[in-house]
Design goal:
The chain has 428 residues and is mostly helical. It has a domain of 38 residues. The chain is built from 18 helices and 6 strands. The strands form 2 sheets. Strands 1-2-3 form a 3-stranded antiparallel β-sheet. A hairpin with a 2-residue loop joins strand 1 and strand 2. The chain starts with a strand and ends in a 26-residue tail after the last helix. It binds acetyl coenzyme *A (ACO). Acetyl coenzyme *A (ACO) binds next to loops.
Amino acid sequence: MTNTATLNFNDKSYELPVVTGSENEQAIDIQKLRADSELITLDSGYKNTGATTSEITFLDGEKGILRYRGYPIEQLAEKSSFIEVAYLLIYGELPKKAQLEKFQNDITRHTLIHEDMKRFYEAYPAKAHPMGVVASITCSLSTFYPESQQPNRSAEEIELTIVRLLAKFSTIAAWAYKNSVGHPVMYPKNSLHYVENFLHMMFGMPTENFDADPVIVNALDKLLILHADHEQNCSTSTVRMVGSSQANLYASISAGICALWGPLHGGANQAVIEMLEQIKNDGGDVQKFINKAKDKNDPFRLMGFGHRVYKNFDPRASIIKDACDQMLNKLGVSDPMLDIAKQLEEAALNDPYFVERKLYPNVDFYSGIIYRAMGIPTEMFTVMFALGRLPGWIAQWKEMLGNKEPISRPRQIYTGHTQRNYQNIADR
Ligand code: ACO
């Protein structure tokens, strides 16, 4: 097997190195191409461009494989916990017992957010989307911890920033919800584990005792694991890109939260439920909406279907679908949205339009139904995604920093006017 590729252009030949990953993925390294030939590569949406080498997550979109640090997602979802997976992603290995206890303890001790930040929440309009609130409060953490802004931070400072962010983010997210419904915020409880504590801050009330249902705790823990990383997607690439300018962790993650918000990315989980509601309110004619999705003159897309990378199935969607069935059974909840979702899935999977384009349900298709059963409002769904993705973003930011990657700065092919002369306003 050769380890170079040859590019012929304008009677010249260029030898380009081929890089091979640990799963035998191959890439043509074009880093020196411009210096040698003045050519750049053009790849709108980075559909075929590797932006980095990474040791964190492997996915094979054709085979439906997803592994964090080598461990299959199916095993982690069944046997691990979200906090253990966060440790694995960020530090590269499964923690030993003492390491996990210390990590959990460190996170528990940092969950409080500065009292002054409460006033930020009060200043947002009642209808503020929680993603906007969470993104800006996350960025505001940098103003309370200015030491995080130093480009030459010590390893200890970086570790402290990571723990602070992991801990405070669940409080930030839960308080965004409390604020949106006009309820008093709940302070974190140090005696509770991460997921129970989050549910306590979401659904607890100062006047009542709150015990989270273990069925819900388990399902949420699993959902967070499934969302924890997904290599170089839109929001993760954003985190790495912003971080490459040496912006601090809080600012980089805040940018990632904004990127996640869009309906083509993490915002799809909210969009799925809105779509299912639309179908239900319209009389439940699933085929009508399948036809709309296929009609190129209609902007409607089947939300929760299709993926840039998975072209046979999304392994996370299979686990979530089962978890969804189990949870609704255990809670004794019947949700008409689930029936519509199942009909929609069946109709799409048997329709040549979706089959030919390899469009399958993605992670967001069933997650919204689980969140609904937990009592989480639709506008919070993407915040839940962010809560899960946080360790992945942090791991990717840390790796980018450790690799001393250069500032991200893509090039372009300019297609505008060539030089022309300014005209006085009277002559235009
Ligand atoms: N409904 C109908 N048609 C679709 C859909 C869909 N959900 N997704 C893709 N298509 C069609 C496109 O119209 C296109 O058809 P064409 O070849 O006839 O022009 C073809 O399938 C390929 O689609 P692209 O948009 O080129 O694929 P891309 O890889 O750029 O987009 C994306 C992937 C954004 C996920 C897309 O499938 C989509 O919009 N899905 C709905 C939103 C969604 O669920 N997003 C969540 C993704 S998972 C996540 O981010 C966590």
